Amino acid sequence: MKKKTLAITLILALFLALVSMPLSAQDRWDGSDELDVNPLECMGAEMMDDEDGEEMMDMPEYDGGMVAMGDMDMAGQDIVVVDVPKLIGIGYFGATTLGQQQAAEELGNVSVSTDGPTDANIDDQIQVIDSYITQGVDGILFAANDPVAIAPVLRRALEAGIYVVGYDANSEPDARQWFVNQAEFNGIGKALIDSLVDQKGEDASFGIVTSTFTTPNQARWVSEMWAYASECFPDLDWLETLEAQEDAGLSFQQAQTLINKYGEDLDGIIGLTSVATPASADAVNQADVCEDVAVVGLALPNAMKPYVSTGCVRDVILWNPVDLGYAALYVLRAVVDGEFQPGDSSVMAGKLGELMVVNGSEVLLGPPFVYNMDNIDDFDF
Question: pTM for the full model?
């Protein structure tokens, strides 16, 4: 009996020790624990400058895929491109489609259309891409629902002589030629954590509403947030990460779950999709806890205007998705024309000017942008 009592006591002691661990020692159980991270400096020094004031960056070797070259040189020729995002019917990918259409109009020699699943389902996305390989388009743009699962069908596209460029959510690098990254993952992670800390303090308790644990960009943001917070704000209390499948109703329910489950212990909710953030803001607003729970996240300005204008949400972190779609099509056109090749350090993208290459085969759109009460009405998407 004494041994049993001692065993129970030891188990309880171990449990209490685990729940009282600092953020850096906890287990997130969110699917991103094993990802490589590169957290930024706590004070915001993202790059070291040399004596001439130029940014010191090592250019990694190109690690993208190669398209099978046919007999026809397509430089300057009319091309047909299909865009296959994670899903259609939401504002975010409506904005990227708009950007692609603007780029096509400027270029004058590209016909681009958007097609994809109505839910963020990787199997459905693969089927859509496969059908366009059969039809024989010249180029494919994509935003992956799963970086590994999508890779085989993209490799088949390359083998069929189809140019492949990703944006928003990457695949395995060798399954596409280039990926247009809206903002580097560590920059997004830092911006989200800094906003939360600025609003609720260095010991805030927060939960996350994400898409899925396997969605590539969300998983990377979570991993970079964890690494940055562990180094810079170890007293933050990372409560829970919940999946919501980029579904508005489920995102609202998951935010309600956090509010009801943690009550006064909840200081903030971080939304990692353009659907989860406004849904979380709506849940916080309906629960009448705007003054107690800060909503921080990635979202389109139009969806967040009602909450920013009333002060329920202070700011929204994102980038311009119209520019993201615009840049992706310009990159694909430059690849087809032979103007952008492995080893290049930059690419010209129309009105966006020169975009830099990072991480071997990624084109960086730019740093994250903060929408707030002062500027959010200047944007309409």
Answer: 0.75
